[in-house]
Specification:
5-stranded parallel sheet; alpha/beta; Rossmann fold; globular
Length: about 160
């Protein structure tokens, strides 16, 4: 991945990339990214990744149904997140649904959009760990193509307001 970031070049605007998943803390990442977008004059890109497992040919009909249900669930999650961003910052975020391996899709989205200036994640405040994305990216941070901002899932709206 060698795409140059163009987010501050003429004709471009910086964007935060937020992953909308099934964790409780996704809202903190959306909140921070939306507040940041207001102050930076940028935008927000919301990504939902559907990890498709290998499908056995004899179950192809069932796999198609499962895939359609996953897309429906992804659209519903993005609707909630986009509504939240619009309520926070009066912005309409870009929405992406990708299928495949999580890290591969995440890197492809960043590579394809030179205006993405950072990835915003939220860490779970629970004892079970920081959450799947924070844990996954911990091993890749040294070579990641954009800065990663990790927001504590325990921060209130007021606390995030003071940071963004």
């Amino acid at each position: 991945m060698t795409s140059k970031r163009l987010c501050f070049e003429p004709g471009h605007k910086p964007k935060c990339l937020v992953i909308v998943d099934d964790t409780a803390e996704w809202d903190r990442a959306v909140y921070y990214a939306s507040r940041w977008a207001i102050r930076a004059g940028g935008g927000v890109v919301m990504l939902r990744i559907i990890e498709i497992e290998d499908q056995n040919q004899q179950w192809l009909g069932v796999a198609d149904i499962m895939r359609a249900e996953a897309h429906e669930a992804a659209e519903a999650a993005l609707d909630r997140a986009a509504g939240r961003a619009n309520g926070i910052a009066a912005i309409t975020p870009e929405r992406l649904i990708r299928e495949g391996a999580a890290m591969e899709q995440l890197l492809a989205v960043i590579d394809e959009d030179p205006d993405i200036a950072m990835l915003v994640l939220a860490a779970s405040p629970g004892a079970e760990g920081p959450g799947p994305w924070v844990a996954l990216l911990t091993h890749a941070l040294g070579t990641f193509p954009v800065p990663v901002t990790v927001i504590s899932g325990a921060l209130s709206d007021g606390s995030v307001d003071s940071l963004s």
